[in-house]
Amino acid sequence: MLPKLPNNRGAAKVPITQFGGLDRRAGAGNGAVCDMLNLTGAEVPVLASRPARKVGAALTKPRGLCAVGTDLFYVEAGALYKEGTAAPVVASLPSGADAERSFAALGKRLLIWPDKLLYDTKTGASAALEASFTGTGLVFSDGTYAGEPAEKNTITTTGEAAFPFNAGDAVTIPACTPTGGVELTVIIREVSDDKKALRFYENTFAESGTVSASLTLRRSVPDLDFLCVNENRVWGCKGDTICCSKLGDPANWNVFDGLSTDAWSVETGTPGNFTGCVSFMGYPIFFKEDRVFKVYGNRPSNFELMASATLGVLPGAEKTLAVAGETLFYLSRAGFVRYNGGYPSAVDTALNAKYTGGAAGSDGKKYYVSALRSDSVREFLVYDPETGLWVKEDDLAVKGFANVGSVLYAQTAAANVIVAGASSPDETAFDSSVTFADFDRVKIGRGTYTFASKYPVRIWLRYELAARNVTVESVTTDIAALTVQISYNGGAFENVTTLPSGGKTAKYLPVPIRRCDRFRVKLSCNSDWKLYGMEIETRTERTNRKGG
């Protein structure tokens, strides 16, 4: 007996006029987007290809990217460059060509770690934050302070070199006879005009005398794993310790005078090391994997550390911290979360994947992240806090981001790339695609659905496709094409048709009629395009479900 053909009794249509973001959950349902390439969420509810990018000069050893005001700076092969300049603004950084850099901007001053270097973007001058002086024959003696005689408060060098310190610096003096055999960290109160005498408070030293052995005086800056700037102070953390610099002075971290301008330091006494820090909503916020710490107050005397036992930053994911739409986003051990000062909440449920690291940035509105999945697959994703939707662009591997106004730069292993806000993009064309989740149920009546075997019959598309002209031997050809494919029961995708460029138009496309339990539709394109609507027409034969 020949198989029965479908009839109108089982006719059904599935219209889709609003397209959401990426949703890879098993139960996403008819019309959900389960995969995409090079799309954007800027046109939601319309599907559209992403804007083109601009690619900067080729890099060989990129090791960091940051912005100070309207200027972009980056480290390449151990030198600091300003975007748009051929020669480095700092020819050689102390940590060498291979060290990854962290940055913080204090006004017009750029701080570079682990080099502990300050670069003044206004004057172009650079200086080490740490300073030291080594000499023999240093004289500890009586002197003066504020123009009055003072006992045991002065160190004088008998050599030709001057001290590299300033009044207000905290310096560490090694244990010696004049210090009473203990190491001292004291604050310089005055420096002589020739910078060969340092004056401290009276009776800073145990006794006077000359030290014939070599002594090294240091103004030290702590080794920091992570740093940020908040309220004119540099904040940082390492291990279990949080500390901040003197107000407005990133070179001094050991000044404890009991003043509002002092430095500050505290240990949290909780297990584990810090995994990141950020300035957010006017507070310095520090993260461990299972805790979030916020520092309240505006001076050391009223600084208060408050801890919450909640999802912090995943170790190794400190670069995923970014603020978009007045909300902080980062990667935790439970996935990507949003944080508004209380408890973080998950935002990546629709991605249905586990991520182990990445780097993120923001153009002010959207959260861009180059995320590494647990299966080593790289995904360049964009999350829109306003719509709550994710889109996937491609597999761009990013080392770091920086925002200059509304222009978002990403540093890759090969170049600095503008991934959002490019005014004169370099990309001329790229492929894009969208794959819809299984159409496995159809509506056959008011509120009635069936999972019976079905026959896809026709696809209706309303789309817009820009021309892509290619000239070969003076002959110009439009090669723009929108390819429509269909897959039955999880099999390979088969071509249905290829559509040409054109303005906003509608097309009815017959598809190969084949009985199936479920099917998927995929659209691929090689030019700029938009999809305004889609409708799938199917026929069902519920009587065929028995035995089949």
Write the layout of secondary structure elements.
Elements lengths: L10 E6 L16 E5 L1 E2 L6 E3 L4 E5 L3 E7 L2 E6 L2 E4 L19 E5 L2 E5 L3 E4 L5 E3 L2 E5 L2 E8 L2 E9 L13 E4 L10 E4 L2 E2 L5 E3 L9 E3 L3 E5 L6 E5 L2 E6 L2 E4 L19 E4 L8 E5 L2 E6 L2 E6 L7 E5 L13 E3 L2 E6 L2 E5 L5 E2 L8 E8 L4 E7 L4 E7 L4 E6 L5 E5 L2 E5 L3 E6 L11 E5 L5 E4 L2 E3 L3 E12 L3 E4 L2 E4 L3 E7 L5 E6 L2 E9 L8 E7 L3 E12 L8
Antiparallel strand pairs: 1-51, 2-41, 3-4, 4-51, 5-40, 6-7, 7-8, 9-10, 10-11, 11-12, 13-21, 14-15, 14-20, 15-19, 16-17, 18-19, 22-23, 23-24, 24-25, 26-27, 27-28, 28-29, 30-31, 31-32, 32-33, 34-35, 35-36, 36-37, 38-39, 39-40, 41-50, 42-43, 44-49, 44-51, 45-46, 47-48, 47-50
Describe the fold and architecture.
- By secondary structure, this protein is mainly β.
- The protein folds into 3 domains: 8-51 and 431-545, Jelly Rolls, CATH 2.60.120; 54-128 and 228-420, Methylamine Dehydrogenase, Chain H (7 Propeller); 131-219, Elongation Factor Tu (Ef-tu), domain 3, CATH 2.40.30.
- The chain has no helices and 51 strands.
- The strands form 14 sheets. Strands 1, 3, 4, 44, 49 and 51 form a 6-stranded antiparallel beta sheet that branches.
- It starts with 10 loop residues before the first strand and ends in an 8-residue tail after the last strand.
Structural class: mainly beta
Tally the beta strands: 51
**Name of the CATH homologous superfamily of the largest domain:** YVTN repeat-like/Quinoprotein amine dehydrogenase
CATH topology of the largest domain: Methylamine Dehydrogenase, Chain H
- Give the DSSP E fraction (strand runs of 2 or more residues): over 45%
Q: Segments where pLDDT lies below 50 for 5+ residues?
A: 543-548
Distance separating the two termini: 15 Å
Largest sheet: 6 strands, antiparallel
Helix content: under 10%
Shape: elongated
Number of domains: 3
